[in-house]
Automatic annotation (TrEMBL), chain A:
Keywords associated with the record: Cell membrane, Copper, Electron transport, Heme, Iron, Membrane, Metal-binding, Respiratory chain, Translocase, Transmembrane, Transmembrane helix, Transport
InterPro entries attached to this UniProt entry: Cyt_c_oxase-like_su1_dom (IPR023616), Cyt_c_oxase-like_su1_sf (IPR036927), Cyt_C_Oxase_1 (IPR000883), Cyt_c_Oxase_su1_BS (IPR023615), Cyt_c_oxidase_su1_bac (IPR014241)
EC id: 7.1.1.9
Species annotation: Humisphaera borealis
Main location: membrane
Family, per entry: Belongs to the heme-copper respiratory oxidase family.
Protein name: Cytochrome c oxidase subunit 1
Gene3D superfamilies in the cross-refs: Cytochrome c oxidase-like, subunit I domain
SUPFAM superfamilies found in the cross-reference section: Cytochrome c oxidase subunit I-like (SSF81442)
Function text: Cytochrome c oxidase is the component of the respiratory chain that catalyzes the reduction of oxygen to water. Subunits 1-3 form the functional core of the enzyme complex. CO I is the catalytic subunit of the enzyme. Electrons originating in cytochrome c are transferred via the copper A center of subunit 2 and heme A of subunit 1 to the bimetallic center formed by heme A3 and copper B.
Catalytic function, reaction form: 4 Fe(II)-[cytochrome c] + O2 + 8 H(+)(in) = 4 Fe(III)-[cytochrome c] + 2 H2O + 4 H(+)(out)
Classification via Pfam families: COX1
Entry membrane topology: Multi-pass membrane protein
Automatic annotation (TrEMBL), chain B:
Protein name per Swiss-Prot or TrEMBL: Cytochrome c oxidase subunit 2
Xref: CDD domains: CuRO_HCO_II_like_2 (cd13915)
Gene3D superfamilies per the UniProt record, alphabetical: 1.10.287.90, Cupredoxins - blue copper proteins
Membrane spanning residue stretches: 22-46, 67-85
Protein's organism: Humisphaera borealis
InterPro entries listed in its UniProt record: CcO_II (IPR045187), CcO_II-like_C (IPR002429), Copper_CuA (IPR001505), Cupredoxin (IPR008972), Cyt_c-like_dom (IPR009056), Cyt_c-like_dom_sf (IPR036909), Cyt_c_oxidase_su2 (IPR014222), Cyt_c_oxidase_su2_TM_dom (IPR011759)
Free-text function comment from the UniProt entry: Subunits I and II form the functional core of the enzyme complex. Electrons originating in cytochrome c are transferred via heme a and Cu(A) to the binuclear center formed by heme a3 and Cu(B).
Signal peptide span: none
Cofactor list: Cu cation
The entry's keywords: Copper, Electron transport, Heme, Iron, Membrane, Metal-binding, Respiratory chain, Translocase, Transmembrane, Transmembrane helix, Transport
EC class: translocase
Length: 575, 348
């Protein structure tokens, strides 16, 4: 089955970038890839390295679910299991979820969507990929040197004193990767402020840009805190300084404050860019502007700011005072409100729209269902009285997988399929795409829904052997995981095939608005052959006239290096 | 312990009912909104699907609708917050008459000591219908004391005391888990909570194997063995009435005074790190630190002893150095009977 572009007449002949080679075709040497300063190629580098890490993290997860099909630990021993869940968490959180959407889709799309030629600092962009790779190498080295058994949260004094594993190597890896995150965030912030095309005002920015901008703020403000925390763990381990170890006068709970001060906002580094993807998908596949554009944009910023004041909800059972607990509880509920608003706004974007259920839209709709349940179960944990029972049980495991794996990974998949034709110039097989979306949705729910029940029944997390009455639900969960895994493997196959043999996609296969669809697929190295001028709000559907999409008259020859001349030309065009 | 499959955890404490009711409310809200969103998504996707000749999409903005879905979640959140807050506030202070039991968590076992000296490993035996207060310490890493059937949990953090209280409402045997990841055998750090009818419990408690002495007696012995009594009857501050009283102390600079309550954590700190807080009027050089000399268990026993001195000022005042210490303590059997007497009184 071949793919039919949504609306063939919309993919009219391209006025832009006809002659020059695309960013993919310009050079094929390894050096041209490893030393590239092109944000699009760097995005591809990230995509490939993160896919590899996702597979590593997924393999660990598979082994864990295998172990948990029986109540006794008969597949692996306790030691191996503890290392598996640690490496699963570390790889997935620090090396997949946090960079996933911003470093791949964000890197590729931020300049294209605002009509810029590149990010503000191309060299820094390349450097941040190298930092990412070096950080990952350290952490993987820790794995080969014997593994780490602290859990991805590295709670002290277990991690800093008691653990007999490669904690120092792993935290150094996370420390280095943190710089990669800060640099990406800085690059995004400066790019959005300084490099927008003429006419691209703040309220004409696509919501994907808004949400990546909000996430970038968190990356820059929050990441240094986790970096310092990781260094302190390493220092205490190597030199026996009493920072977190009470036997040396330290405070073990101090670590938890510092860790969650970053790591709660970090969940929004993951999820805000995912929100941006969902906004784009809902608009494109409903052919309508996102309902309540400004509210959705401001909700992103509100979430980013509020996310810094709720870390204490991870410490309800540490012996925190009741007053502190109540303050953190009320603040946590407040973060829920902008999130709820967004979910309703996305849903109502379809209202009176022209909805088509292509693969990316299936992923987006799956996201709406799964994220809603993930967010609502967050409220259970925000309510102090209930969290006392639920804390550190499988309920929490289910909750954060619903939000991060259900939410972020579904959005990432949706975005990858949506922009795939732009990235590669090729179409993938629509049937297998839909298959994958459906398998992931059902596999996911079967895997994680039983864990909510397990949690309320009282099964603690990080147990390699458990009481026998929990077995039925664990078997369901493991069965779901095998369906989920096949859903994740499929795209690896048909996307790779499409890259080589897929039918040509055309420049705007979905008939979508947005500057990125106004250049060729794949885009030329300099993104746009002529400088785009923006004269309308984003998502200005319906597309009455297909020629709207290729507004020759909204592009100017930007060969001139003279700023004043450029400004005049722009003024002429706009008047 | 019911080993069979079930979808709801056993309810065995007074608190469990209240937590469950709140949980049911949360489930109802969650089910409602999840089904609402899922229903709308499917309905819109079908009703407005792209077809030939369908009307073109219409712009649609509606401020009223947006206000509704801002205010409704806000109101629901307020209800959830207040309900959840009431639950914790209600369970934050143990009742005065609670039975106090000491727990020490270590890699990888729970070590329980009752006030008459009876010890248990990975088991906690308590009477039904009486509030129980656990005073907990960790000897190494952070552990977390979790009894699902009671819906209660408390981290046990090294270097400080943690408290947890509950009131068992059903006799039976329940799971006791360690909920905070604590290393290799974390999932093996489990035990049983046995809730006995009152009469059975008393019988169980009095069947203390020989050689066990109450925490107070053990504490009193340590007090004399380590020479504490030498000072604390003369140059040093008296232990009489100390526990729970307000102390004026200074840490670092003598002119920076501070008022603290002499609770378990204060006593623990003063014993192990004696220079941390100096009582006004005393020299920091006077008391040696006992860090490394005393185990966490020893500290608990000393504190248990100091508490009794607090209640009985006469005993404290008459304290004298050396062997005469033992003479002041009532012989062990009497001590025990006094204990169970007072417990009997508390039941009513
Ligand atoms: C939006 C994306 C969200 C993500 C990615 C996320 C992620 C996570 C993660 C990873 C944990 C596990 C902590 C652990 O390892 O112990 C967690 C726990 C928690 N989450 Fe979320 N969460 C999100 C949304 C929310 C919301 C909206 C709320 C509240 C309204 C919330 C409240 C909580 C609370 C209170 C905990 C602590 C629970 C406990 O440890 O017992 N989360 N979340
Ligand atoms: Cu433990």
């Amino acid at each position: 089955m071949t793919t039919i572009p949504v609306n063939p007449e919309l993919t009219s002949p391209l006025p832009l970038g006809r002659k020059g080679p695309s960013y993919l075709d310009i050079s094929f040497t390894v050096k041209s890839w490893l030393l590239t300063l092109d944000h699009k190629r760097i995005a591809i580098l990230y995509l490939l390295s993160m896919t590899a890490l996702f597979i590593v993290g997924g393999a660990f997860a598979t082994m864990m679910r295998l172990e948990l099909t029986t109540p006794q630990g008969d597949f692996v021993k306790a030691e191996a299991y503890n290392k598996l869940f640690t490496m699963h968490g570390v790889t997935m959180v620090f090396f997949f979820l946090i960079p996933s959407v911003p470093a791949t889709l964000g890197n590729f799309l931020v300049p294209l969507m605002i009509g810029a030629r590149d990010l503000a600092f191309p060299r820094i962009n390349l450097a941040s990929w190298y930092l990412f790779i070096i950080g990952a190498a350290f952490t993987l080295a820790a794995m080969f040197a014997g593994g780490v058994d602290t859990g991805w949260t590295f709670y002290t004094p277990y991690s800093s004193v008691y653990s007999n594993s490669q904690v120092a190597l792993a935290v150094v890896g996370i420390f280095i990767t943190g710089f990669s995150s800060v640099l990406t965030g800085l690059n995004f912030i400066v790019t959005v402020h300084k490099m927008r095309a003429p006419g691209m005002t703040w309220f004409r920015l696509p919501l994907f840009i808004w949400s990546n901008y909000a996430a970038a703020l968190i990356m820059v403000l929050g990441t240094p805190v986790i970096s310092i925390t990781m260094v302190l763990v390493a220092v205490e381990r190597l030199f026996g300084v009493g920072i977190f170890d009470p036997a040396n006068g330290g405070d073990p709970v101090l670590f938890q404050h510092m860790f969650w001060f970053y790591s709660h906002p970090a969940v929004y580094i993951m999820v805000l860019p995912a929100f941006g993807v969902i906004s784009e998908l809902m608009a494109a596949f409903s052919r309508k502007p996102v309902f309540g554009y400004k509210v959705v944009a401001f909700a992103s910023l509100a979430i980013a700011l509020l996310s810094f004041v709720v870390w204490g909800h991870h410490l309800f059972t540490t012996g925190q005072s009741v007053y502190a607990a109540l303050v953190f509880s009320v603040l946590s509920f407040l973060v829920g409100i902008p999130t709820a608003i967004k979910v309703f706004n996305w849903t109502f974007t379809m209202y009176k729209g022209s909805v088509s259920l292509e693969t990316p839209m299936l992923f987006a709709l799956g996201f709406l269902g799964i994220f809603t349940l993930g967010g609502l179960t967050g409220l259970f944990l925000a309510a102090v009285g209930l969290d006392i029972h639920l804390h550190d049980t499988y309920f929490v495991v289910a909750h954060f997988h619903y939000v991060m794996v259900g939410g972020v990974v579904l959005a990432f998949m949706g975005g990858l399929h949506y922009w795939w034709p732009k990235i590669t110039g090729r179409m993938y097989n629509e049937f297998w795409g839909k298959m994958s979306a459906i398998l992931i949705f059902f596999g996911f729910n079967l895997t994680f829904f039983p864990q909510f029940i397990l949690g309320y029944l009282g099964m603690p997390r990080r147990y390699y052997a458990y009481a026998s009455e929990f077995q039925v639900l664990n078997i369901l969960s493991s069965a779901g995981a095998s369906i989920l895994a096949s859903g994740y493997l499929l795209p690896g196959i048909y996307l790779a095939y499409s890259f080589v043999k897929g039918p040509k996609a055309g420049d705007n296969p979905w008939g979508a608005k947005g500057l990125e669809w106004q250049t060729s697929s794949p885009p030329p190295v300099e993104n746009f052959k002529k400088m785009p001028i923006v004269t309308e709000d984003c998502y200005n559907y319906p597309l009455v006239d297909p020629h709207d999409l290729q507004p020759e008259d909204r592009l100017i020859d930007s060969t001139t290096k003279d700023d004043d001349k450029l400004k005049e030309q722009v003024k002429d065009k706009l008047s | 312990m019911d080993k069979s499959f079930s979808l709801w955890p056993t309810q065995a404490s007074k608190q469990a009912l209240h937590v469950d009711l709140f949980y049911i409310f949360m489930l109802a809200v969650t089910a409602f909104f999840t089904l609402l969103i899922a229903g709308l998504v499917v309905f819109f996707a079908v009703k407005y699907r792209r077809r030939e000749g369908a009307p073109p999409p219409e712009k649609f903005e509606n401020v009223k609708l947006e206000l509704v879905w801002t205010i409704v979640p806000l109101l629901i959140s307020v209800v959830m917050f207040v309900w959840g807050a009431k639950l914790v506030v209600a369970s934050s202070k143990p009742p005065e008459n609670a039975l106090e039991i000491h727990v020490i968590g270590k890699q990888w076992m729970w070590h329980v000591q009752h006030s008459n000296g009876r010890r248990e490993i990975n088991e906690l035996t308590v009477p039904v219908g009486r509030p129980v207060k656990l005073t907990m310490q960790s000897q190494d890493v952070i552990h977390s004391f979790f009894i699902p059937a009671f819906r209660c949990k408390q981290d046990v953090v090294p270097g400080r005391f943690s408290y947890l209280w509950f009131e068992p409402s059903e006799p039976g045997e329940y799971h006791l888990f360690c909920a905070e990841y604590c290393g290799l055998q974390h999932s093996g750090m489990i035990g049983k909570v046995k809730v006995l009818p009152q009469a059975d419990y008393e019988r169980w408690l009095s069947m203390s194997p020989a050689g066990e002495e109450s925490m107070q007696v053990a504490g009193a012995k340590l007090f004399s063995q380590y020479g504490c009594a030498t000072c604390h009857s003369q140059q040093g501050p008296s232990m009489a009435g100390l526990y729970g009283s307000e102390r004026v102390v200074w840490s670092g600079t003598p002119d920076k005074e501070q008022k603290v309550i002499a609770d378990d954590n204060y006593l623990r700190e003063s014993i192990l790190y004696s220079k941390a807080k100096i009582v006004k009027g005393y020299s920091p050089a006077l008391m040696p630190t006992f860090q490394g000399l005393l185990t966490e268990e020893n500290v608990s026993q000393l504190i248990a002893y100091i508490k009794t001195v607090g209640k009985d000022a006469k005993l404290g005042n008459e304290m004298t150095p050396g062997g005469r210490m033992q003479d002041l303590l009532p012989p062990r059997p009497e001590m025990k009977s006094r204990n169970s007497d007072s417990e009997k009184r508390d039941y009513k």
